[in-house]
Amino acid sequence: MPLTFDDLLDRARSLAGRGPRAILGIAGSPGAGKTTLAEQLVRELNGTGEPWVAHVPMDGFHLADIELERLGLRDRKGAPATFDAAGYAALLRRLREDTGDVVYAPGFERVLEQPIAGAIPVLPTARLVVTEGNYLLLADGLWARVRPALDEVWFCELDETERVRRLVARHEEFGKGHEQAVAWVAGTDQLNADLVAASRDRADLVVPPTALPAPYDAGSGR
After folding, report:
1. How far apart are CA 182 and CA 188, in angstroms?
2. 212 by DSSP, 3-state: which?
3. CA distance 10 to 196
4. pLDDT tens digits, residue range 107-140?
5. Full set of structural domains in the chain with CATH
6. For residues 83 and 142, is the Cβ–Cβ distance under 8 A?
7. What confidence tens digit (pLDDT) does each residue in 53-105 have?
């Protein structure tokens, strides 16, 4: 039987039932649908009762543009070196400690294209944290600290033509002209996508397009 979204819900619930707070990672190339899947999982699992699942995206650990300029990495924004990987891994470890405190995670403002400190509260009632981002499965450098902090990592896989189409649409939605969006996707984004794709085999589960929630908005498939 092909994997379904309901299967994913059941698997996520089982993670939360194994003991202390669990952390589920969702990886995949830019535009593959990580954020959409994470948001839908959290929405469905929480239902209408007291929220027990939190969503903490990796994107909050983007370095600010001013720091990227200092490092000479402004034109590579989104690459592994343009994130605070050590800070992200430290937050995951803190979430796993489950001390009963509210933990504040940074968010990312798409319109500003900047991280926002303290934007996401993870309450003590959260028994499952869903985190998503491109580089959860990388084994190099500081990123190697991330995978051990996660109970499972799922990899979103999408047809390449559709992934690129959605990614161009997203860049246009947030202010890039069409030619600029196409060039960025073909250059910077594709370099990142190739790197992420090479980490696919380290995932616990590969999520096919048929298991992703619908409807799917072209501009939101992250």
Report:
1. 10
2. coil
3. 26
4. 998 778 899 999 999 999 999 999 999 999 999 9
5. 5-211 (3.40.50.300)
6. no
7. 999 999 999 999 999 999 999 988 889 999 999 999 999 999 999 999 999 99
Instruction: Give Dmax (Cα) for the chain.
Output: 51
pLDDT confidence bin for 165, thresholds 50/70/90: confident
Within 10 angstroms of residue 118's Cβ, the number of other Cβ atoms is 10
Q: How far is it, in rounded angstroms, from Cα 53 to Cα 42?
A: 6
E strand map for 2-41? 22-27
Distance between CA 214 and CA 59 in Å, rounded? 23
Are the beta carbons of 42 and 130 closer than 8 angstroms? yes
What token pair was written down for 33? 């649908």
* Cβ pair 189, 78 in contact under 8 A: yes
What letter represents residue 52's amino acid? W
CA dihedral 62, 66, 69, 71 (to 10 degrees): -70
Q: What share of the chain is helix, strand, coil (3-state, %, to 5)?
A: 45, 20, 35
State the pTM of this model. 0.89
What six digits make up the tokens of 50? 């007291």
Name the E strands within the chain.
22-27, 53-55, 103-109, 114-122, 128-132, 152-156, 205-207
Helices vs strands, H then E, count in the chain: 7, 7
Q: Which of 138, 144, 106 is nearest to 122 (CA)?
A: 106
Judge contact between 109 and 82, C-beta under 8 A.
no
